[in-house]
Structure prediction request, 361 residues.
Amino acid sequence: MANVKFDNITFRYGTNTVLENFSLEVESGTIVCLVGPSGCGKTTLVRALLGLNKPETGSITVGDRVLFDAKKRVNVPAEKRNIGIVFQDYAVWPHMTVLENVSYPLKKQRRPKDEIRQRAMKALEQVHMTEYANHLPNQLSGGQQQRVAIARALVIDSDLLVMDEPITNLDAKLREEMLLEIRMIQKRLNATILYITHDQQSALQLCDKMAIMEQDGTLCQYGTDEEIILRPANRFTFEFIGVSNFLPLEKEGDSLFLNCGEKIPYPLEVPEEAANGGYEIGVRPNDIVFDSQSPLKAKVDSRVFLGSEYNYFLSLGQKQIRVQQSMLDARTTGVANEGETVGIRFLNTRCYPAKKGGASA
Ligand SMILES: Nc1ncnc2c1ncn2[C@@H]1O[C@H](COP(=O)(O)OP(=O)(O)OP(=O)(O)O)[C@@H](O)[C@H]1O
Prediction:
């Protein structure tokens, strides 16, 4: 399959600028999740890729095919773009057999009967579903239905698969199953998949890389999930991906303190720019560890066992913070009990200028 390149795309609905000089390249044979809050412009970008809307500026190429180029006045019609789509509201049709479902796009193209059957069977083979060719969708598991939807997207020999929130309406177990299915098919076919979601958890499970869009339609970070979690480009990424605690950092005299309803001396070094306060300390729940030697003390409000970790709410002064403790840590340092006062230590802290209106936990 092919790589995808968006170059300097600008798109407006009337006076509402949704995308401005947006650029992104998806490497061939990878799954890239485009993640961002509702309304940031994900669907608008995908519609431009599919040829369903026309940007004002920029170009879109898939492999060596230019699908759109504003300057050169290239705009390949949607039906000729050769992009397979799996949408949330584009599920398999219940009244058609698996083979009929997969054959449908070719029937619409009025291909000869023999060719349709042969290509549909090949697409079913690619997703390991040939033996179900004559089944109806309600005789299949959710994961198998998803494979049929993917086969239907593959049957047109697509250069690229676009999946727009394909699993949003499903229950948690089925979602997990489908993400595995998608990953396995992608690996087997070395497919290029652009996967659109506002669910950062599925993005983390699925992708090779994530493209994080901010509310205003800008691309704020593009990288592997590890890069994004461990080295977030800015506060937006830090806050949007994963769970975070924020604590206001202020200065009085020569000392820095956390303003948590009461002034709690801050024991760690801070970057130079934060040395005068007016910042917030960001720390992930799994980067807070129990340490009886630490001068930072908090009270345990609640503890919940989640199967593979403990989840705590602690009061640090008047502020509630969240802490996650792995089973390994629980075995080595022991669990903390409700009502107990514990020492806590922050690892991997970040400092961001305080938001107007104060910090959030
Ligand atoms: N047909 C339209 N006419 C006018 N404005 C629109 C239209 N479609 C979307 N918008 C606006 O464009 C912006 C981007 O919308 P878009 O659907 O691309 O966001 P999204 O990131 O896909 O959101 P979601 O995750 O909720 O699907 C929003 O402000 C939206 O209100």
Notes: The CA atoms of residues 30 and 121 lie 25 Å apart. The pocket of adenosine-5'-triphosphate is lined by residues 13, 16, 18, 36, 38-44, 198 (CB under 6 Å). The chain has a mean pLDDT of 90. The first strand starts at residue 4 and ends at 13.
